[in-house]
Amino acid sequence: MRYAETGFYLEVDLSRGNVERVATDPKETELYLGGLGTNAKILWDRVPPEAEPFSPENLLIFSAGLLCGTPATGCNRTIVSTISPQTRLMAFSMMGGFFAPELKYAGYDKVIIRGQSPKLVYLWINNDKVEIRDATHLAGKGAVETAELIKKELKEPNAQVAAIGLAGENRVFFASIEQGRSSASRGGIGAVMGDKGLKAIVVRGTKDVSLARPAEFMNLCEDVAQYIKFRNQNPIPNVMPILAGLGSPQEMKVHDEKWHTENFMWGNSRLRRKDFWNEDIAREWTETLDSMRRRLISCYNCPMTCGATIAPPGRPTYMMKCFSKLTYTMAAMSDLEFGLGIAQSATEYGVDGFSAPQVMAFALELLEEGILTAEDFPGMPEDNEGRFYWLLDRIVRREGIGDILANGTYWAAKQIGKGAEKFAHNNIKKHEQLPLKLSMLNPIYFLMYCTGEKINITQIEGQFPQAPFFTLEERQEFVKDWFQVPDDKFKQYFLEWEPRGEKSMPFFPTVQMCCDIVDWQERMHYIDDALGMCAGLSSFPLKPPYHIHNYPKFISAGAGFDMDEEKLTQAAKRYRTLVRAINISRGMRRKDDKPPENHWKKRFPELEKELLDTYYKFKGWNQDGIPTKESLIELGLGFVADEFIKRGILREDDDTPSQEMAAAAGGEV
Amino acid sequence: MAGDKKKKIVKTIKVNADKCNGCRACELACSSFHAEPRYSSNNPARSRIRVVRDPLRDIYVPIYAGEYTPSECLGRDKYVLDGKEYDECAFCRAACPSRDLFKEPDSKLPLKCDMCEGEEVPLCVKWCLVDALEYEQREEDAEEEEPAGEMELGLEALARKHGLRSLVDAVARMASSDKA
Ligand code: SF4
Ligand code: SF4
Asked: Which residue, A118, A265, A353, A393, is the most exposed by fewest CB within 10 angstroms?
């Protein structure tokens, strides 16, 4: 008997139209937990570094987390993993909503897609009955529209649908997979789905998910519910409102956007508008949101209502999440009405809400600079908003200039040349980032930007306050009930951290402290991604209800195997290292571990070098960022060490890379 | 004592559909409470509360499993409220042959909300953390005449459906397996 997990994967070969239900090895669960952890193991085992993102060999894995489908509040994430066409590294994007629990109830922990279908199809999983069905009638349809049509044709209003829109079908490098309330957007995984000829996965499940020690598990859940109530009533003082509470950023609730609009960059991540927010704008934007927002909505088994149904005038209703509320508005230097309207098209087309607006702003900047000319934009309307709609259309159809832009700013700039590279300035590892440009180097964020392999800052930050509090009293107050820390030393770090003077940034927290802080924050995200927990109740907000102290109890009461803090930390380190190993085998090296060049104005090259050197050592990586043989063996990843030696990435006798091989592997990633 | 009227406890769950965010925590909690042993398994398809949920049409209706009915209605109800058109039978609580709702997924036996007997508040209420479901208890004067018991009504319904003979057989079978 398996607990919390179902113990089965669904293997789907789209080239041969073959579907198989495969029992899994419980030992793998103990080593890699589930979700991201076991996804990484499968990608390492089965997708060789030579495999192209767009090829039948690439796998597209939809995984429920280990605890999805149990009563653990907010545990509903689907972790989608593949090799990204944009970064050419491992992509792992998560979506909330209702898909993962439904998959569990249907009797599967993962759906593993391989091959390529000759014509557009969708996968219909109804408990034990699985069909690959024709989807040619759905070609070109929007992602939301597709979900509605499929539910109707199957007469299954309760089925959950993950679908791509036109962007995915046309293999746009930042295409998303949309699932009603949520989407898996980062890294272009929707493009891989399109390349496989898979329009949608539809799932309905009516089976049980069992718990090993139910009474104990329910008590843990009750503690969490109590703490959520407490935190909702007691927001954290001295931080900006968006960081004070739980949940994903509560963008659908707040009207006051002073902080975002005045601190984040507008246009192609260029312009900071320090005095943007005023009473008129506040009134206008409040009216806009109030008139279009129909209801605040949650993901499965969660009270936080982080999303909303939005009905823009004259357009179909859609569901919006988080910060896509402002990304289009700010990229186009427009207003909220425009932002909420174009996001409807973007959701149907299925594109990432960070990359898509930035790519369009980038194109218009190139036009302004004369690097692109009017001839590249035949028929583009004159008005600003109209241009964005027009560009979005070209991109998702890959028409004209859209075909180049569809590869994201990094690849587009390379193809355009003429100095366009300078304008693709807000990427890490070829992937567009939050539009944020700051002054003083923050050593913690420096390390996170460099080494976060989710390649998205919000997916690695969270547990440690972003900035020091002003007075010691405030800091003392904050650490009083900060029981989530893995070790009391973190309280000390925070108490000593001053806004200015000797113990301020960039030299404080010290290099060693920064390593501890980054490692803790990253660890919590990796654990969430294996368990299927929403970061909004765990790794993302300060003082969350789930943490390193209660997670082991959830795992052992739920899944029924022994777990403690140390074992959990080790497991997270194991699959985190495996993610790195996959990327290293694909050529990623130290040279790729860097923030966007202009992210901070004040840089400190020596300090930065020391930070990276020390952090690599701390993580068990050599000075080129490659996990050492010794650390691999300690994690039970000897098979990775063997492969690295075979490929000349590591040398048998020591841990420095052989020079020629490093050079060969260090080509274009 | 003579002259004293009998009291009975009336239990109500007040559903405030406007507050519902569609999270289905209520379904999950119900299914796990009614699992054997308690909380050992989770499966919203076994839940005695169901959220009729269609976000794009802004439809959120938590409904409770009511009586089993042997045959479906002749006519069907359709409602339009606040400009939203609800599906046929959206508000009906019956476990009815016309649909799968409120039936055990394997055996197809009907399910019925029992207000989580023995608990302080029904579990769906407890786990609806946004207070879309509220529990109320009040005392009312009992009616003079005892109405037919729940069991009798249930048995009558089963007898109508399966025939008295096979019902008696089934009860006898259950009794003997209980002894074993
Ligand atoms: S906290 Fe928000 S994003 Fe996370 S599961 Fe709950 S509703 Fe979804
Ligand atoms: S738990 Fe409450 S908010 Fe969630 S679906 Fe049920 S009634 Fe609605």
From this structure: A118
- For chain A, the C-alpha Rg in angstroms (whole number) is 24
Tens-digit pLDDT profile for residues A169-209: 999 999 999 998 899 999 999 999 999 999 999 999 999 99
Which residue, judged by its Cα, is nearest atom 7 of ligand 1? Answer: A298
Q: Which atom belonging to ligand 2 lies closest to the Cα atom of B25? A: 1
Strands (E), A381-510: 427-428, 431-432, 438-440
Report which ligand 2 atom has the smallest distance to the Cα of B49: 6
Q: Where are the beta strands (DSSP E) in A159-271?
A: 160-163, 177-179, 182-184, 198-204, 209-210
ω into A509 cis (within 30 of 0): yes
- In angstroms and rounded to an integer, the radius of gyration of the C-alpha atoms of chain B is 19
Residues A446, A531 within the same domain: yes
Same domain for B75 and B16: yes
**Domain range spanning residue B160?**
146-180
- Closest CA of chain A from B89, distance in Å: 14
Q: Is B130 a domain residue?
A: yes
Residue given tokens 């009511």 in the structure block = B66
Over residues A433-462, the mean pLDDT reads 94
Q: Which residues pair with A161 in a beta bridge?
A: A202
Distance A627 CA to ligand 2 centre (A): 46
Count: domains in chain B: 2
Task: Single out the residue of A249, A420, A215, A390 nearest to residue A324, CA to CA.
Answer: A249
Domain boundary among A149, A183, A204: A204
Q: Is the pTM of this model over 0.90?
A: yes
Protein residues with CB under 6 Å of any ligand 2 atom? B 20-26, 51, 62, 128, 130, 132-133
